[in-house]
Structure formats: C-alpha cells, structure tokens
Amino acid sequence: MSRWVGGPLALLVMFVTVGCEAGTPNQQGTAATTQALLSRPIGELTQVRPGLETPSGEDQLPLGQLGFDQGDQDALVRIVEMSDYGCGYCRKFHLETFPILREEFIETGKVLWKFVPFINGMFENSLAATEAAECALEQGASPFEALNERLWTDQASWKGSNDPEPVLRGMAQEAGVNLSEFDACLRNDTRIDRIASAGGTARRLGVRGTPSFYPIGYPPIQGALPTEAFLQVLEFMHQEISGATGN
To answer: CA 244, CA 238: separation in Å to the nearest integer?
Structure first.
C-alpha cells in the first residue's frame, strides 16, 4: 500500500526539496504502518470556517518559504503543522505534547518540524496574533520562539481582548522583540503575503480543522492526539524510513 494518501500531499514535495536531499524510502510502505496511522482516532480539533479568501496560484508563496522550521535539515522524518493561534486544541498540543516531541525527536535530529500558522476563520483576534508572530520571526528565531510561547501560554489574554494589539505589543516587548522594527512590520503589512499564502496552502492540503499535521509521505494526522499516540506514530515513521534508507 502506498504511503501517499490523497492528492493534496503532493504539494509537500516543495518542502522536501527545501529541506534536504537525503535518500527517500521506497514508496511502498508496509501495511502495518499505514494501518497504524489510519487507525488512530482523530484528535481534538477546531473546524475551519469554509469560504476563507486565499491567494491565487500566481500569488501563492511556496511552502518552503512559509512557517518556522525546527530541527535538523537532514532529518529523515518531516512534519508540516498547520495551526491557528486562537485554537484551544492547538494551545493544548503546544503546551502538553510538542515539548515532549521536541525533546525526543526534533532536538535529537530525527524530525524536521515546520510550523505554519494560519487563520482558520473561527477566532476574531487570530490575524493580529499571527501577524505579531510573523513580525517577530522577521527578526530571527529567538524573538519568534519567545513570543510564540507567550501566544500559546497566555492565549486568553489576547484572544478575549477587545483591543488585542496593545496586549500583543507588550508580549513582543517582553519577548525581546525590537519594537521599532515590529511596529514598522505591522504598519506596512510586511508579512501579510505569508499569512495569506499559509491559508492558501491549508486549502490546497484540504485542512479541515486545527491542528492538522502532514508527515511527508504518510497520511495526515488530524487533531491534537494524545501525547503517547503521537510519540508512537513518529517512532513508527522514523524506524520505517531508517530501515528503508539504511540510516
């Protein structure tokens, strides 16, 4: 049985070429691994509102230019995460599960993780939070990681605010972001094309809710699975690809 399930995953080839040119496993995956992935229950997720505007093909930035990468560019396993900063289940994943995945798989060089924030249309202040995160990312990985953590940890403070911009600016300042550059980025909508392209990517991948995860060469994982289930899935992938490539 082929690991490739559904046409939307073909878009992720762009990410593979950006990541590295390590050998890829035989496309004929084992039935056991595929069944293990498909038999996982769909985790908790927030539905995407239909009808969101996305850029046309000629305006769409390639996936390799979107999001934030963590891990070894030569990692055998590659995951693309699509999440909305306003999503409660995404917050749960980032606070409870992702730190463990990062320690056991990303920091050990087994997984390259691409986090692509996008607007699923369900949360009024998500655009402000996403643009703040993108403007922090423009200044480098450290400011972004600090603000990214605050956005998840203190989600309620900006998500429920009638005026989220001052709240987000205060978080950015505490995260060590250069406020002059940050304000200019927001004022000039510098990162809007990236945010719009992330929405277009989500539509092309067929994202139905957040969080959603797209492992290269495997079926998508929908929703915030229990931590142990996610660990088992990543271990399946790494062992299988390692065996196929001889690494």
So the answer is: 10
